[in-house]
């Protein structure tokens, strides 16, 4: 485990080497003693800054930029120059900086990845270098790695295939593992599996940094992923591996293949499920309609949609419904309309959520051959509407108005990212429901006006879950990440809701509280892992302490010169 409590660091590096290493660099904050010891005089301007002063300097520069993409590039460069300062800035300004480091700006960062490329971060594993994976992992620099986020770049947010540019996502997710979950940055590793791309903009861009090749699929793809996972297990047997932004055909399939082989989860399937379920549990307190009586319409029956349906269904079973009663409460709508039994082309993870033909007999339909979302809302009268389709504007005015007609307090969550892909905007939902909807959005939106005051709409994003899941699982050395651990995370999130005491308050804590949320989620996840026998050696009364010992706070520790 990385020592986050050391009082000082002893190093044999030269002054130049310290300045060049983002994990060790302090820039103008190197003290006089350190400048003496490492011959740093002259390499730095004479004034010694404090970390707080450096944060103010960077914040001022950041705010002077015109666009968020420039801010993103500036922060990425800072992260690659001085990690302590980067995280001090991030942790102290989560609400302002999360939309830049993470969703939505990270989406543009992926699209512009080749143009913004400065220094490499993390690992690019490409098909032509498959035989070298072990050697690449062997670098001593990666000895401390505990958490990996991996993508193959094929479904970057709702922006589709970004090829090697997808690397922006693991970098952004791991910035939250540290910024919110408190994992030491040296223990985190972003990885891009470069299996090519089918994005013609990338393939024809002379500046594209990835492997210029069409996307490899089928057995060759599976063999490459297998080589990757086997090498990960060999190098870091206790690592936490998070799968991120894989396309629909791979996300759930790879999760099922690997979830019993190592401590691993898919954030889009399981992390999203937990944030949606947690927010729904908080909303149930407000609307007064018990979970067992909720009917849930989901637009987009892909990785996130089916993950969400499965965890809410499990919560309904916990609340007393039978499996079939709970299943009947879901209306999954994909490109070809409502998923109904016998429909061609259903995937294995969609099959559990098809509606029975009998259940929809007698529905009044505009086009009987395709049951659209509006048909579903008019006939099934769902209490909850969740969007994970990646399609902007699909929660149209008639759909949202129909939700408002059949519910006193409709629950409406347009969760697709980034902002440009949201199924509806909070302002529109507020207007079309006369302010009665409980709203959750995936990306940050400006506040709406509610009851004459500004109201910040909840950001129902898996950032409320994955940093805590990672922290909790690693703190107790969990061997696996179970569905029960995600249910525990969802319940911990719901229990943090201010709406429990006052229905006018938010369903979720603010983004500025994500560090506290992560610690709370971590505790619930670790306790659950313990109860399921997934942690061999941690006594239950030590769990809280283990979690807190693992939380790194960005600050400088003094360096001493190693004498040879
Ligand atoms: N808020 C969050 O935390 C969060 C988490 C995960 C995913 N998401 C967002 O959800 C979206 C989907 O992610 P995913 O991993 O499930 O992707 P996916 O590709 O697995 O699933 C998307 C599904 O939407 C369907 N679809 C496309 N157009 C449609 C339409 N017009 N009507 C109905 N269905 C349509 C597709 O056929 C597919 O089944 C993305 O935009 C992603 O950013 C948000
Ligand atoms: O990255 C996010 O903001 C959430 C989610 O993982 C997504 O893919 O949209
Ligand atoms: Mn994702």
Automatic annotation (TrEMBL):
Residues 269-530 form the Malic enzyme NAD-binding domain. Keywords: Metal-binding, NAD, Oxidoreductase. It comes from the Bacteria. Its cofactor is Mn(2+). Residues 79-259 form the Malic enzyme N-terminal domain. One of its GO terms (molecular function) is oxidoreductase activity. Its EC number is 1.1.1.38. SUPFAM superfamilies: Aminoacid dehydrogenase-like, N-terminal domain (SSF53223), NAD(P)-binding Rossmann-fold domains (SSF51735). It holds the Pfam family Malic_M. Belongs to the malic enzymes family. This is NAD-dependent malic enzyme. It comes from Bradyrhizobium symbiodeficiens.
């Amino acid at each position: 485990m990385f020592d986050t409590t050391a009082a000082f660091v002893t190093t044999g590096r030269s002054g130049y080497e310290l300045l060049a290493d983002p994990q060790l660099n302090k820039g103008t904050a190197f003290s006089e003693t350190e400048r003496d010891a490492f011959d740093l005089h002259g390499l730095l301007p004479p004034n010694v800054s404090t970390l707080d002063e450096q944060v103010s300097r960077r914040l001022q520069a950041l705010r002077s930029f015109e666009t968020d993409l420039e801010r993103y590039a500036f922060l990425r460069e800072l992260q690659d120059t001085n990690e302590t300062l980067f995280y001090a800035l991030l942790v102290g300004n989560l609400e302002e900086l999360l939309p830049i480091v993470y969703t939505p700006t990270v989406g543009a960062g992926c699209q512009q990845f080749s143009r913004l490329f400065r220094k490499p971060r993390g690992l690019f594993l490409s098909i032509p270098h498959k035989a070298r994976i072990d050697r690449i992992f062997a670098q001593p620099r990666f000895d401390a790695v505990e958490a990996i986020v991996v993508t193959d770049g094929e479904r970057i947010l709702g922006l589709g295939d970004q090829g090697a540019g997808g690397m922006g996502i693991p970098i952004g997710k791991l910035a939250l593992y540290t910024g919110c979950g408190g994992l030491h940055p040296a223990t985190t590793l972003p990885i891009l599996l470069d299996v090519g791309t089918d994005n013609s903009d990338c393939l024809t861009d002379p500046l594209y940094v990835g492997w210029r090749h069409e996307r490899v699929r089928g057995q060759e793809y599976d063999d490459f992923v297998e080589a990757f996972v086997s090498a990960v297990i060999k190098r870091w047997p206790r690592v936490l591996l998070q799968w991120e932004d894989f396309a629909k055909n791979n996300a759930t399939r790879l999760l099922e293949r690997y979830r019993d082989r190592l401590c691993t989860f898919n954030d889009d399937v399981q992390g999203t499920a937990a944030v949606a379920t947690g927010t729904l549990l908080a909303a149930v307190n407000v609307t007064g309609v018990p979970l067992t009586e909720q009917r849930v319409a989901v637009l987009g029956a892909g990785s996130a949609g089916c993950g969400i349906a499965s965890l809410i269904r499990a919560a309904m079973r916990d609340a007393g419904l039978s499996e079939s009663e709970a299943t009947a409460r879901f209306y999954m709508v994909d490109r070809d309309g409502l998923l109904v039994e016998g429909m061609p082309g259903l995937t294995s993870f969609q099959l559990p959520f098809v509606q029975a033909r009998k259940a929809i007999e007698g529905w009044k339909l505009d086009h009987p051959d395709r049951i659209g979302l509006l048909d579903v809302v008019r006939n099934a009268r769902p209490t909850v509407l969740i969007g994970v389709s990646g399609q902007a504007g699909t929660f149209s005015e008639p759909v949202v108005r129909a939700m408002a007609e059949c519910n006193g307090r409709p629950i409406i969550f347009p969760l697709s990212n980034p902002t440009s892909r949201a199924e509806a905007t909070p302002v529109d939902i507020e207007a079309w429901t006369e302010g009665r909807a409980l709203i959750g959005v995936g990306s940050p939106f400006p506040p709406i006006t509610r009851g004459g005051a500004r109201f910040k709409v909840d950001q129902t994003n898996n950032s409320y879950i994955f940093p805590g899941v990672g922290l909790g699982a690693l703190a107790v050395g969990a061997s696996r990440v179970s569905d029960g651990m995600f249910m525990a995370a969802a319940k911990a999130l719901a229990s943090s809701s201010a709406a429990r005491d006052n229905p006018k308050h938010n369903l979720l804590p603010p983004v500025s509280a994500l560090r506290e949320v992560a610690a709370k989620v971590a505790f619930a996840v670790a306790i659950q892992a313990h109860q399921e026998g997934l942690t061999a050696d941690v006594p239950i009364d030590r769990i809280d302490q283990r979690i807190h010992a693992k939380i790194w706070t960005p600050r400088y520790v003094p360096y001493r010169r190693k004498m040879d």
